[in-house]
């Protein structure tokens, strides 16, 4: 796991966008994994800026999103599919239907989850997956206790996650759906490169467990310790509880400039 402690969200945006730009330069048909939430926004904003300047195109790429609330109407502004369209997809040049997400309004939920897994596999798997992390160490919506071998499925959201996300639902925790569909931990682990972004002191404990704690379903992001290519982009506040922070800083400073994340 490569831990990179950067100055602020703007620098995270630049380093994160470099990984996408390099990949799409080498492989325009790359398969991307997109995440909703505030953490990836600086990366998306930087990619949009580069796209507008002609520096990167998504026209041949495909993408899969991580998760979706169950039961929100298609036009609900907080439906994750609408959020990712607004935050990123509609601001660049993806082809129509190039971006897919789990179908939270499917009548047959288990069949929709199986189909989603099959679609990712058929596309050849995800080349680069961007991720945020929850304050309790969840990734996508894999809450504590999730099977480390899980695949796309329906999950019940924890009270904490519903409280964390109530800010998007007029601060009304009861308006936050109780269930979601989410890629499983094994689905995420199959991505060839995982890039996790975290900012702010609220994420410091989860980040410490993820990078330096014991691998456990209680902190689902710890499964990433078993992944061969993970890049973690942090601001100093999110890195605030890392025991090896000085070592991570030295490693990044000593990295040859030609070598990307
Ligand atoms: N399902 C999403 C996660 O994918 C996201 O990582 C997390 C943190 O969100 P934020 O980046 O806004 O802190 O929130 C939600 O629970």
UniProtKB/TrEMBL annotation:
Please state the Enzyme Commission number of this protein. Answer: 3.5.99.6
InterPro entries in the record, alphabetically?
A: Glc/Gal-6P_isomerase, Glucosamine6P_isomerase, Glucosamine6P_isomerase_CS, NagB/RpiA_transferase-like
Site Part of the allosteric site: list residues: 146, 153, 155-156
Residue intervals of the Glucosamine/galactosamine-6-phosphate isomerase domain: 17-227
Per the Swiss-Prot or TrEMBL record, the active site comprises: 67 (proton acceptor), 136 (for ring-opening step), 138 (proton acceptor), 143 (for ring-opening step)
Regulation of this protein's activity per its record: Allosterically activated by N-acetylglucosamine 6-phosphate (GlcNAc6P).
Alphabetized UniProt keyword annotations:
Allosteric enzyme, Carbohydrate metabolism, Hydrolase
**Protein name (record):** Glucosamine-6-phosphate deaminase
Which species does this protein come from? Mobilicoccus caccae
């Amino acid at each position: 796991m490569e831990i990179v402690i950067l100055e602020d969200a703007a620098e995270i945006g630049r380093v994160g966008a470099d990984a996408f730009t390099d990949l799409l330069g080498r492989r325009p048909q790359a398969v991307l994994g997109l995440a909703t939430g505030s953490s990836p926004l600086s990366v998306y904003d930087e990619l949009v800026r580069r796209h507008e300047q002609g520096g990167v195109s998504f026209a041949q790429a495909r993408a899969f999103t991580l998760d979706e609330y169950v039961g929100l109407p298609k036009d609900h502004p907080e439906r994750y599919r609408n959020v990712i369209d607004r935050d990123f997809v509609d601001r660049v040049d993806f082809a129509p239907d190039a971006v897919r997400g789990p179908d939270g309004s499917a009548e047959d939920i288990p069949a929709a989850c199986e189909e989603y897994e099959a679609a990712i596999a058929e596309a050849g798997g995800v080349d680069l997956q961007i991720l945020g992390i929850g304050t309790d160490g969840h990734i996508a919506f894999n809450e504590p206790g999730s099977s480390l071998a899980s695949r796309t499925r329906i999950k019940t959201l924890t009270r904490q996650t519903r409280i964390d996300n109530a800010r998007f639902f007029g601060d009304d925790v009861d308006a936050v759906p109780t269930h979601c569909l989410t890629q499983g931990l094994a689905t995420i682990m199959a991505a060839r490169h995982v890039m996790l972004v975290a900012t702010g002191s609220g994420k410091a404990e989860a980040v410490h467990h993820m990078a330096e704690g014991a691998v456990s379903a209680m902190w689902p992001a710890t499964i990433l310790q078993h992944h061969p290519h993970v890049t973690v982009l942090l601001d100093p506040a999110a890195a605030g509880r890392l025991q090896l922070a000085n070592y991570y800083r030295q490693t990044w400073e000593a990295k040859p400039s030609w070598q990307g994340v």
